[in-house]
Amino acid sequence: SNSMVELYTIQRYLQYNTLVKNNLQHFDAWASTFGETVTAVELTPEGYTLVGR
């Protein structure tokens, strides 16, 4: 599976100069630009809970 960190690492390897040009050379800046937090209901032993990912 491709996680956000893996995608960032590949882009950093292939397009580092572009990331620097757009001030996205740090993961937090990159993730806030391209990522989205999603809240979903998940079943746990205690019942259903909301989980943000």
TrEMBL record:
Q: Which keywords describe this protein according to UniProt?
A: ATP-binding, Helicase, Hydrolase, Nucleotide-binding
Q: Listed GO molecular functions?
A: helicase activity
Q: What is this protein called?
A: Helicase
